[in-house]
């Protein structure tokens, strides 16, 4: 009597000579490598296209974004006061291809953003931190620096690339896609920190041009630094903006290297801003 012992065939199209886990790892690694390659190619394409986007197209892009910032009577009054300051700064020392429009958003966040079409949104939480016109002028000039360098369009373009890649490869709600986007997003953080440094340097040059000195430029960051917890060596990679203490040191070094006077008369905040 012959006893039958079942076993897998040594060679078959359905039998793999390597571990299925290893094959899965190779597959996922290849997929990530392709996604990263496409991401950097599209990011490079964004950098090539952005300088050729006209102010008219920027206004069209911004139309629906800025509608949400239509404010109350109070925020409109503050927007008007900031608008006057921004216009004075721009007409004196900044060369931009379009007019600026400043909105105040009733929001506790301590921040300001540059949006396409020359639109600047200042959150009311940031206004509460301001103590002089020079301080406020630096913030507005920093946002104008993003317009001059076209950072606002590059940021939007790269964000769209990230979302599109994730949805194309893995579907809109896939958790692996979220991990991939998070990994690529970290590489963007360094890019973002460099943009912030360049915008700070632009603002220092324009502030010196407007007031004859750069006093007040670092006051805001000194206040913010008192509220920050040091990010540490690893935490630095997750920051979209440089830490305040590093930002202050870099700005002071840049001011000294360019012989910008660090001391000068600080003007009071214009009426209506706060």
From TrEMBL:
Domain Peptidase M48: 94-253
Signal sequence coordinates: none
InterPro entries with a match to the protein in the record: Mito/Outer_Membr_Metalloprot, Peptidase_M48
Cofactor: Zn(2+)
UniProt entry tagged with the keyword Endoplasmic reticulum: no
Keyword flag Transcription: no
Record protein name field: Peptidase M48
């Amino acid at each position: 009597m012959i006893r039958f012992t079942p076993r897998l065939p040594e060679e078959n199209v359905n039998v793999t000579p390597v571990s299925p886990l290893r094959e899965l790892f190779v597959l996922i690694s290849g997929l990530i490598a392709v996604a990263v390659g496409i991401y950097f190619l599209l990011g490079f394409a964004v950098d090539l296209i952005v300088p050729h986007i006209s102010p008219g197209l920027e206004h069209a892009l911004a139309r629906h974004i800025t509608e949400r910032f239509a404010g109350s009577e109070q925020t409109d009054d503050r927007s008007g006061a900031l608008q006057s300051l921004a216009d004075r700064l721009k007409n004196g020392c900044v060369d931009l291809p379009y007019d600026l429009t400043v909105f105040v958003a009733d929001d506790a966040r301590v921040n300001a953003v540059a949006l396409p079409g020359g639109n600047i949104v200042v959150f009311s939480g940031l206004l509460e931190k301001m103590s002089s016109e020079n301080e406020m002028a630096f913030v507005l000039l920093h946002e104008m620096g993003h317009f001059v360098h076209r950072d606002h369009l590059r940021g939007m373009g790269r964000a769209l690339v990230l979302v599109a890649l994730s949805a194309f490869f893995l579907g809109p709600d896939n958790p692996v896609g979220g991990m991939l986007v998070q990994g690529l997003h970290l590489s963007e953080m360094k890019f973002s920190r460099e943009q912030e440094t360049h915008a700070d340097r632009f603002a220092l040059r324009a502030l010196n041009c407007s007031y004859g000195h750069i006093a007040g430029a670092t006051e805001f960051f000194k206040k913010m630094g008192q509220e920050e917890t040091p990010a540490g060596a690893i935490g630095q990679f997750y920051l979209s903006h440089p830490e305040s203490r590093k930002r202050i040191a870099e700005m002071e070094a840049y001011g000294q290297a360019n012989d910008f006077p660090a001391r000068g008369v600080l003007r009071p905040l214009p009426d209506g801003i706060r």
